[in-house]
């Protein structure tokens, strides 16, 4: 007899609640939205509906693989972890921790184990060489938040359900599901905005699905978002529209921002942005006049040359118009596993460039080095060369610039470990490949995405299916990996969780502001519940979190048992003002004009004097895609999910490009041939390719993706263009050349 099971969807940032149907044969046969989920209320997208295909993909690896005699072969788990220890130990002994590096891919933040164990792995390795998908995505927002608030993780999100005017810059949430803004049913939330008389403005060089739903679409020239935002700030100052409201008493640096903005009136930026000055001025007036307004920028505004400056100006504009930290504006979520709020006080602030990469001298940001610099760190001889790499849930050969170069570099590593369910373009280079189980056999808690949620809530899913025979949980895989790099490969993996719990409780009992101050940590540990170490750690975080029971201090507070008793989740209420309590700046204020950003403004000012002609490349998001491995799911490929180069009709006519023609695109990093799609969905001077494709390399085992390979857009980018403050690769607004190879069939 079939049954149902509840599960939080791990396939994008919306984190929708699902009701899975489990067939008699013990596999997922269907998925629908959970109508009782406290957050998503039954919403589901095509990705969530494909959960059964994701779970049962026959190309998913079901046992470890170990390289022997140059070939990857199936192995037992004990053989695999023995190979990890045998491969890493001599390298660490001879060359030290700097000879190792870790790459963490985007899916890490979509799994419970991915949120718990990588920090322990990095602590055990003691390497400064951390590379993640963040420097291919959102790192500019973390850096600007660090400089403004003293905490790189204090990222304000749009209070979608209470705003009257939403300005979206470089985001397409109707296809992405929202990003750094966890919001199930983004389409429904935008419809509700319109029903209550609100206004939606979208700034994007493409007419996306989100732009089509907007009251106004401004088709800006790619990479000029910082100029537009500075012009909006200038109008707010020049026309005496500054009204910060309650947050004003916590702002410093307002006059400095005023001086910087004076050089960017609408008339000065209009040519570079290719937007009418009067349109810019009108937008500033509307934002200032709206009872509740919010500016929200995402990947199109972060993966550009001035990504950190743009991210900063988003928050500056929200602050100056009185829309920072107030309902309907940009607010700071408070997740159930966050640190409990403390009384306001000055903090240590946020530092950039505490160390630099060995070859390119790139400054670290938030403890990470630019992903675009990984290849040179492997290739370049000398002391500190990266000889061993651990990749967890990442495919940087497709996601990072110049994948061909990185592909060659990976082949030259002395040792590589990949934790991945697929033999893909990156993991094919591994010496040991450790596959985690499918999502239906895994628990789920959103440590990362609850920190960006537009409503505070807590939900937890236990596995819908038991682990298949011969599989290890992702938690055990990562715990054993921690032990291997610590030289304790034979130890019980439960010891990793026990050490983490003991360390966390040790800090808590020593903290005078903690509800467990002065108590015995052994006695506290005995109260923790859960079927394994990962659940016990979750219980600990819930109990000590802002809504927790404090190990008995608040009997009505959260525990794991209480969350389990509410399978559809617990609603913790709308977002609430949190300033000044969350500030960790040295001044204890919102430092509105940090020196690194003031210095970047001079570089931006120089762009007003020159403008590059020719075509600019931007990316594209598909509703049925998120990461490259989704191209191996039959339900998520085909149809509108096409890897084509979108070209505006006027550019196509000028270049002799017909719809369906094969064209050659050339950029700084290389060239490729792809089918052209002539459409006015892109503005003139812009071409667009989606990311995550290029499944044509040998030695992979992704049959569906190989049948629909597409081309790798990042091969057009050589990685030399970076946002200097965050180290984020410039993936949008890159110059390319276009020629016809063959006419349309």
TrEMBL record:
Residues 2-59 form the 4Fe-4S Mo/W bis-MGD-type domain. Keywords: 4Fe-4S, Iron, Iron-sulfur, Metal-binding, Oxidoreductase. GO terms for molecular function: 4 iron, 4 sulfur cluster binding; metal ion binding; molybdopterin cofactor binding; oxidoreductase activity. Pfam families: Molybdop_Fe4S4 (PF04879), Molybdopterin (PF00384), Molydop_binding (PF01568). The keyword Metal-binding applies. Signal peptide: none annotated. The keyword Transit peptide does not apply. It comes from Streptomyces sparsogenes DSM 40356. This is Dehydrogenase. GO terms for cellular component: membrane.
